[in-house]
Amino acid sequence: MDRRSVLIQLDTDPQPSVFDAVVAVDAGAEHLFRHGGVTPANVRDLVYGALFTRGPADLSSTAIFIGGSNVAAGEALLEAVTKTFFGPFRVSVLFDANGANTTAAAAVLAALQGSGGSLQGVPAAVLAATGPVGHRAARLLVRLGAKVAVGSRRLDRATEVAEAIHRATGREVTPFAADTPDALASSLRGQAVVIAAGAAGVTLLPASVWQDLPDLKVLIDLNAVPPLGVEGIEASDKGAERGRARAWGALGVGGTKMKIHRRAIQELFASNDKVFDAEQVLELGRSLG
Amino acid sequence: MDRRSVLIQLDTDPQPSVFDAVVAVDAGAEHLFRHGGVTPANVRDLVYGALFTRGPADLSSTAIFIGGSNVAAGEALLEAVTKTFFGPFRVSVLFDANGANTTAAAAVLAALQGSGGSLQGVPAAVLAATGPVGHRAARLLVRLGAKVAVGSRRLDRATEVAEAIHRATGREVTPFAADTPDALASSLRGQAVVIAAGAAGVTLLPASVWQDLPDLKVLIDLNAVPPLGVEGIEASDKGAERGRARAWGALGVGGTKMKIHRRAIQELFASNDKVFDAEQVLELGRSLG
Amino acid sequence: MDRRSVLIQLDTDPQPSVFDAVVAVDAGAEHLFRHGGVTPANVRDLVYGALFTRGPADLSSTAIFIGGSNVAAGEALLEAVTKTFFGPFRVSVLFDANGANTTAAAAVLAALQGSGGSLQGVPAAVLAATGPVGHRAARLLVRLGAKVAVGSRRLDRATEVAEAIHRATGREVTPFAADTPDALASSLRGQAVVIAAGAAGVTLLPASVWQDLPDLKVLIDLNAVPPLGVEGIEASDKGAERGRARAWGALGVGGTKMKIHRRAIQELFASNDKVFDAEQVLELGRSLG
Asked: N or C: which end of chain A has fewer CB within 10 A?
């Protein structure tokens, strides 16, 4: 019997992502079932269709991808999907709404590379850490042993993120307000790694601020749309020397992100029990070497 | 020119069934065009797309599957689809909304097996015969020559089903009310075959009732979600001895159902003039041997 | 890495066209991503998914088809799609909402054939030129050097079309009112080519009118649903002699239309910078010989 790989794309946007679909077929998914406008309410029947059609021995040939521009909505799908599994009736899942997991993992891999292969004890700050990519990047830095500070324009929101990461990891994270250039400069003093994870077309970090940071070694920007998030670097930077630091722009990080995304799709079909969220995606990225 | 098989999935639910899609590709459909939220109003243009794209000699390489959780809505699609055909301009169609046809056929095949290969003159009862699976199972039993009784909690609804089957087959069917254990026990006395086609998680037939039936030979339950529809058997039973009878649970019937479903998809591409509704699906199941 | 051809079907109807999908896979598109209910508002993200997933060298393996029954809505998509392209970031696009471009091109190719291979200076009239197919057919006739008249029941609407074609081509086009048989006969006197591009099931041109036209050589009807648009010919006519003229019916033109459609899909994957609108589709049709 034919047991070609089936990837079920569950997307919370009305039109399911073409980006995720192209990556899926380029990674080798043979059949792609695309669903837009998916809500937790219609997840159960869709997942049952994955669980009850192929025998237990063939479940690894079916997998689920969860995407869409709204990361919180995607997280609700992920929860609904995994809750539907029971006993051996499960298939592997990749969660990458808005590319948040693959982007955060690629950013942290750049930070790791720029730090000589270890982030243990390294002071690292994430700007716009309240967004889904920034939040994940900060959490992943913590997992790798960095001493992490998370910034937002509002201190209360930065504090919320710090507390959420503390709950998830048991490690302390320092919140800071990035509401003025002076506050920013002061909070970033001493940092060796800075990741800017802000919205498209918004400058978070002026050149005058980062060029004066004495200990800065790695500068990463995840915004590809001018003006960039970090002033004075290029979107295509990939380890380029910028002042005292090495810099990565959004396109420089993007190549790694794509590799991780494709590889994660392939890994879905290696077994039927994987759930790839941020940590697992980072691990997979590290294994790419 | 490329003439790979195209299956057009018309589903009345907003999200087209993943179950039906996996079965379709596992049966070898090379291209699957999936449509959710289909209504009779948009059937015509979709069917025209099947009829007017490949030459008359190639129409057997295109086919239509009609599904969705609402069997009555699916029947309306089936009518709209077949009305769109004219002259030689037709493609083969499989109707299996909510799995009703393949499930009913698999249940009746189990009844046939448990009855030594013939249902001619065999007294058989269907519980919850007012649902689409029960209704079809009863009709198929009649087609095979069984003396059929149809039960519902309400006698008037059982009577409606009996009359509908009479109109379809010209054969008499006995309605009965299954509103109390005593009524049930009384109506089932003398039956050799009982099929429980009720909703998930609802017990229709207490063990105390069926264990006392003197002539019972075959006991079939189509509900896989505990508590089962027939108390005292297992969902995985597949001809297991239970008291005086041999029993089939939902999973025991399910394997046959899947085989019929896949084979029916394959048969769609053998010619361009088949319409597989319950009777044709049963016939096809019998040919699987 | 796998770089199989991906065609993104953007359709303005709620259910994306099955017709266009079958043609796409028959033309060899390996992956088809189908989107219904597409509006200009959701085009950008879908197109980004085409542009940012494969390297610049592989962009020709991804392409876009724009369809749907509403030609004006499709034109708005086409504009939104091409506006999203920038620099080398573009993929090839075929616009064929309601089959308007391939049908108009096939009709004009028939006119060309019936006129001995050239339309230079040939008087040609289009009936129902206010519809999308008629409008395009008239514009294409102008491009090939014909002296074109465009008819509508209302002179003001015919005048609008004539002016639009003048703006697009710089050439004069004569509007006429086709509100009575006498007006029609008078306007068509002297025409060598007449194309009827009206709605399904509506007769535009009575036999008594066209049989008296002294210079008529080519008669083309694009309505396949009886009563035909041109009285006294057959839908399957393909260069048949009818009175003084050679006639093409909708089915006679349809074979050419299908060939053009399939070939255009294939051409999408030859480079990443083509936009196939009416003129390009005609050119491609001419190259089929």
From this structure: C
Is residue C179 one of the residues assigned to a domain? yes
Q: Are C93 and C78 in contact, with CB atoms under 8 Å apart?
A: yes
Q: How many domains does chain A have?
A: 2
pLDDT at A224: 86
Torsion angle of the four alpha carbons B250, B254, B260, B263, in this order, in degrees rounded to the nearest 10: 160
- Answer with the one of C45, C65, C95 that is the final residue of a domain: C95
Strands B62-67 and B6-11: parallel
Asked if A49 and A25 touch (Cβ cutoff 8 Å), the reply is: no
CA distances from B197 to B100, B137, B138, B205 (A): 10, 8, 10, 11
H-assigned helices in A85-180: 100-114, 132-143, 155-169
d(CA B139, CA A93): 42
Q: What is the pLDDT of residues C51-85, one digit of tens each?
A: 999 988 899 999 999 999 999 999 999 999 999 99
pTM of the predicted model, to two decimals? 0.94
DSSP annotation string for C47-75:
HHHHHSSS-GGGGGGEEEEEE-S-HHHHH
Provide the CATH number for the domain around residue B237: 3.40.50.720
- Contact with chain A for residue C86, Cβ under 8 A: no
Interface B:C, Cβ pairs < 8 A: 52
d(Cα B229, Cα B71) in Å, to the nearest integer?
A: 21
Separation CA A151–CA A161 (nearest Å): 9
- CB of C226 within 8 Å of a chain B CB? The answer is no
The verdict on C142 and C44 lying in the same domain is no
Domain ranges, residue A109: 100-253
pLDDT digits (tens, 9 = 90+) for B249-284: 999 999 999 999 999 999 999 999 999 999 999 999
Helix, coil or strand: residue A213: coil
Confidence category of residue C225, pLDDT binned at 50, 70, 90:
confident
Q: Tell me the C-alpha distance between C54 and C267, whole Å.
A: 19
| Contact flag B26-A53 (C-beta cutoff 8 Å) | yes
pLDDT in tens, A146-196: 999 999 999 999 999 999 999 999 999 999 999 999 999 999 999 999 999
- What is B253-276 written as a DSSP string? HHHHHHHHHHHHHHHHTT-S--EE
Look at residues C185, C190, C254 and name the one whose alpha carbon lies nearest to residue C221.
C254
Locate the chain C residue with the closest alpha carbon to A9: C33
Q: Would you call B209 exposed, middle or buried from its count of C-beta atoms within 10 A (0-12, 13-18, 19+)?
A: buried
In this structure, are C181 and C246 located in the same domain?
yes
What is the C-alpha separation between C48 and B9, in angstroms, rounded? 28
Contacts of A2 in chain B (CB under 8 A): 25-28
pLDDT at A225: 85
CB within 8 Å of chain A, chain B residues 93-152: none
pLDDT digits (tens, 9 = 90+) for C108-152: 999 999 999 999 999 999 999 999 999 999 999 999 999 999 999
Q: Tell whether B113 and B79 lie within a shared domain.
A: no
Kindly report the backbone phi and psi dihedral angles of residue A45, in degrees, each rounded to the nearest multiple of 5, phi listed first.
-65, -35
Are residues C49 and A17, on separate chains, in Cβ contact within 8 Å? yes
Partner B contacted by C236 (CB < 8 A): no
Residue C143's Cα: distance from chain center in Å?
A: 14
The span from the CA of A256 to the CA of A69, in Å, is: 20
Instruction: Assess contact for B210 and B204: CB atoms under 8 A.
Output: no
CATH number, domain with residue C85:
3.40.50.10280
Q: Hey, are the CB atoms on C4 and A18 less than 8 Å from each other?
A: no
C268: enclosing H helix or E strand: helix C250-268
Residue B260 lies in a domain: no
Any domain includes A276: no
